[in-house]
């Protein structure tokens, strides 16, 4: 295995760790911005280093189309191609089964996509996914899995889970660079705890370098979301990283970290920036609003990023949706916010102050104490006391919900 995972601190389920990869030594919990085609839109790699980005995610499907994995390989791999000295993770291409479902056909052999570039069919098999990722050269590569939206029910969920287990063996056999690239398996099974458990145990039996929890953040209700995360983190190995795929809302990251997850990725911070929205401790700040036109304050007075030090809300308001600099400045700020959140999660766990951090985070986001019930329920399972920042009736209600769980449900989470 080309990684080392050392837990530095714990608070109940939450853990802070050092993840050593071929290109960088990372501190977890960590957030990975998505650079679909080898770039975070509007930002240079030295800016990403400046804000503390540790791992960038690249998209196998899109990189295979343009500029092609063969060209990337010829030019020295994606690290050199995009001038990024730190760690990289590439997805398998499997997510396109959901996002480009209208262009794909899934069989046991693999996924046949209709190329959005020229309309030609493109077969992505587990073997081809791994070969492409071997050429790209990321520190972490993902197994091709059969991805199904969590809003779908019925036999398709079970079919996809068992196919994911069959495909992981094909991915392992095809992986030619295990000494400098780490193959992560992906837990599937929809919202069915029995299927999730079968998939977790099957993947753990393969003794992979790390494990991802897939198939979430696809429209399911939040109560189902956290319960799946809690179930999987409770069963996955203590000495391996756990990656919740597609999660980028700060609240979700705090909750999942309390439940024992380590890694996250999402387009949310940069995509919402392009629509004029900034991430702040209170939630979000919409810079397009007319009220911002004469506001001379920084986006967040408590933020130490370059944008908050040098630009006003009024200036950014004049740019958003009109000039690319507006989205660049907001992308920089939003990613800085996510990196600072990661650093705070890590340090608070190491210092034994995680409950205080969680309460402080929730108080700023929900000053009236109206914390969502699903968060209260999740914190109860994570054994994080949030009674000081939660409206009394909500906290009592969440406690009552947990005390009413039957024995099977308690074991599941």
TrEMBL record:
Needed co-factor(s): Zn(2+)
Signal peptide start-end: none
tRNA processing among keywords: yes
GO molecular function: metal ion binding; tRNA-guanosine(34) queuine transglycosylase activity
Region RNA binding, annotated ranges: 246-252, 270-274
The keyword Nucleus appears for this protein: no
Reaction(s) the record says it catalyses: guanosine(34) in tRNA + queuine = queuosine(34) in tRNA + guanine
EC number: 2.4.2.64
Residues given in the record as substrate binding sites: 91-95, 145, 188, 215
Class of this enzyme: transferase
GO biological process, any: tRNA modification
Highest rank taxon of the organism: Eukaryota
Domain tRNA-guanine(15) transglycosylase-like per the UniProt entry, residue ranges: 13-365
Positions that bind Zn(2+): 303, 305, 308, 333
InterPro entries given in the database record: TGT, TGT-like_sf, tRNA_ribo_trans-like
GO cellular component, one term: cytosol
Record: active site: 91, 265
Subcellular location, record wording: Cytoplasm
Principal location listed in the UniProt entry: cytoplasm
Quaternary structure and interacting proteins, as annotated: Heterodimer of a catalytic subunit and an accessory subunit.
Similarity field: Belongs to the queuine tRNA-ribosyltransferase family.
Function of the protein: Catalytic subunit of the queuine tRNA-ribosyltransferase (TGT) that catalyzes the base-exchange of a guanine (G) residue with queuine (Q) at position 34 (anticodon wobble position) in tRNAs with GU(N) anticodons (tRNA-Asp, -Asn, -His and -Tyr), resulting in the hypermodified nucleoside queuosine (7-(((4,5-cis-dihydroxy-2-cyclopenten-1-yl)amino)methyl)-7-deazaguanosine). Catalysis occurs through a double-displacement mechanism. The nucleophile active site attacks the C1' of nucleotide 34 to detach the guanine base from the RNA, forming a covalent enzyme-RNA intermediate.
Name this protein carries in UniProt: Queuine tRNA-ribosyltransferase catalytic subunit 1
Organism the protein comes from: Gossypium mustelinum (Cotton)
